Amino acid sequence: MAEENNKAKGTGGSNVIGAVKAGKKFKIAISLISTLAPIALGVFFVIVVIVAVTGATPSSCFDTNTASGGGGAAIGGDWKNANSDKHKAMQYAADEFKNKLHMSGTNIAAALAIGLRESNFDPAAVNPAGHVIGLWQWGNGGANGNRYGNTQTTVEGQVALAIKELTSTHVKALSSMKDANLADSLDAWDMYFEGLQKSDPQRKVEKITATAQEVQKVFNLNFDGHIDAGDSQIDNGGNTANSGSNSDMAICDTGVSGTTSGLPVKGKYRITGGYPNYNGETGAAHYGVDFQTIKHTEDGEESDVYSVSDGTVVVKTPSVVGGNYVVIKNTDGTYAYYGHAPSLDSIVVKVGDQVKKGQHISHEGQTGEATGIHVHFGLNIKDQNGWGIASKGLVSPATYLKNFPKQLVPKDGVVNSDMSTVFDASEQKDDK
Ligand SMILES: [Zn+2]
């Protein structure tokens, strides 16, 4: 039905943008492709990136798949209890890291503590929505790529995978842990094994440090290491690790906020630009969704743009196509782009700021390639700079934003623009 509406209307059917003139229709409510990419009129790019965002994401970001009988031995018990299976599993990992990689007690405490954070040190921990699995939550298909491959759902299998990666594809994590204290060991594993930014709140640095200190004490991890990442003694089995992105790019609910709900505008709005392309006769690539509030002024509360998630500001800059824009790394590891602000000053947050879902961050505007006042919203699950046609990791905002008007989404995240229908963000519940 949405498709039919769109056909009947055509792109230029309704002029809500105000500034639309003949010959400029293709710029309607516009465009953020990339400065490198030309606007490809009439070319229909089809990107099918299906990201499974479920409504019922577990608050801890993983499930244990034993309930489904899906395989594997869940490792239970209190990790501090030396008789528990979980304690034994952690001891096994510690011994392997010590004997095969010559990691120090401090290095190992960091790795085990992060394993507790990621999966409660359970090899059967899975997050079906994010396609991640295991002790350190490896990508297992879907948008995360597949680092996990055919690894067994066992502590032995997964520790072997970690060792293989630490001596090949992720050797930087290992080399950075050489002679490192606890804080640096945690940084090294999170940045170079998990792929997190040092400042990412998802790391929970304070909590993970306390956990690592406890792990060190409980397992008596008080020995020096002698890591040599180029050491021929290191047994990597001659294999290279599987390709795929890091495990923490999963779209999962960290429990910090409702990251799959919330919209970048409040009150009455229209969707004036679709995804992946503009609709109707232009068909130009677009790779975001344009939100335009009814009043669409450039100042005042009606122009306010809000963060759709808790996160950290990572980019704030002017550009030729997107105008003044801000990128926020959401707590689930995704990147959200808000474009066309009237000025850099009208983006009221700065790089490094931590923001909350629903926080006022910017204003609608029409800088860059825009002919009407709106905010361009884009979402990338891999890259804070990738917003152009060929960028990897771009996904449909409609798939990510739980409260996006579903009638504009005919299939697989494709979004039709709709100049005539007014939606109301304030009528939508903003809960999880
Ligand atoms: Zn746009």
Give me some keywords for this one.
transmembrane; nine-stranded antiparallel sheet; 432 residues; four-stranded antiparallel sheet; binds zinc ion; Phage_lysozyme2; Dup_hybrid_motif; Cell_wall_metabolism_enzyme; metalloendopeptidase activity; Glucose Permease (Domain IIA); Lysozyme
Description:
It is built from 8 helices and 15 strands. It is an alpha+beta fold. Among the domains are: 85-219, Lysozyme, CATH 1.10.530; 268-424, Glucose Permease (Domain IIA), CATH 2.70.70. Helix 2 (85-101) packs parallel to helix 4 and helix 3 (105-119) crosses helix 6 (182-192). The longest helix has 17 residues, at 85-101. The radius of gyration is 24 Å and the shape is elongated. The structure holds zinc ion (ZN). Zinc ion (ZN) binds at residues 30-32, 273, 286, 288, 290, 376. Residues 285-383 form the M23ase beta-sheet core domain. Keywords: Membrane, Transmembrane, Transmembrane helix. GO terms for molecular function: metalloendopeptidase activity. Residues 89-219 form the Phage tail lysozyme domain.
CATH architecture of the domain at 268-424: Distorted Sandwich
Assess the beta-strand content as a share of residues.
15-25%
Average the pLDDT over all residues and give the rounded result: 76
CATH class designation of the domain at 268-424: Mainly Beta
Low-confidence stretches: 1-72, 231-261
**Helix-residue proportion:** 10-25%
CATH superfamily of the domain at 268-424: Glucose Permease (Domain IIA)
Judged by helices, strands and strand pairing, the structural class is alpha+beta
Name the helix and strand elements from N-terminus to C-terminus, one letter apiece.
Answer: HEHHEEEHHHHEEEEEEEEEEHE
Biggest beta-sheet profile: 9 strands, antiparallel
How many DSSP E strands? 15
| CATH fold annotation of the domain at 268-424 | Glucose Permease (Domain IIA)
Organism: Weissella oryzae (strain DSM 25784 / JCM 18191 / LMG 30913 / SG25)
Transmembrane segments: 28-53
Keywords: Membrane, Transmembrane, Transmembrane helix
Pfam families: Peptidase_M23, Phage_lysozyme2
